[in-house]
């Protein structure tokens, strides 16, 4: 594994891209971004991938694309926060055509978790680790013995009779204008339910929670160890590149 690999992270509000230095375990240059198109159809999103790749220095080899859906063998199976036309779409083939290079397509939280486990907050953790990303939705990645169990989709656990991410995501905090203590109380309820079911040793908290961890830490509660993600908004890009290089 050597050189610089292109990683792209498709999110509910923006698409980010950067070249990743896999020897150093970090971005090799700048992180660039563009708004997620609306509607976020396969063609519209693929055009954004190509435009972002065109703005970065040339790189070779497989490209990693992190995507907010269940992904199996390059195909998207769900579409909670992305256009429904993605369901059944072979995203790897489509992106590969647009970028002129082979592409590895994987779930965005799985990508973020891979980056954190290799170089960030989960480095060296052999127990059960759950990575959570709080953004437009809630993304989850489950690791045991350092190995990923892919496509866990635990942001859709039921909490108080509703889809957990419709109750506790960062988008809901903004939409319902919740103050931080009120939102963190919801996050705590979610962590409690996750702990009841999975008994993780460590939760890695990413997205909006990691960005202001020092402020939130005194309000957060869990029997498991709570660690802030270290890659902040870059985890998906770094992890996608890592997964592509190792695929
Ligand atoms: C999607 C997941 C994704 C998460 C974070 C959820 O709505 O179902 O696949 O990982 O959002 O983007």
Features:
247 residues, alpha/beta, Nucleotidyltransferase, domain 5, 2 domains, 6-stranded mixed sheet, 5-stranded mixed sheet, 34% helix, binds beta-D-glucopyranose
Count of strand segments: 15
Listed once per kind, the bound small molecules are: beta-D-glucopyranose
Which residues form runs of ≥5 with pLDDT under 50? none
| SS class | alpha/beta
Q: How many helix segments? A: 9
Q: What is the CATH topology assignment of the largest domain?
A: Nucleotidyltransferase, domain 5
Strand content: 25-35%
Amino-to-carboxy terminus distance:
10 Å
Globular, elongated, flat, extended or rod-shaped: what is the shape? globular
CATH class of the largest domain: Alpha Beta
Please, what is the average pLDDT?
96
Percent range for helical residues? Answer: 25-40%
Count the domains: 2
Major beta sheet, specifics? 6 strands, mixed
The CATH superfamily name of the largest domain is ATPase, nucleotide binding domain
Write down the secondary-structure element order. Answer: EEEEHEEEHEHEEEEEHHHEHHEH
CATH architecture of the largest domain: 2-Layer Sandwich
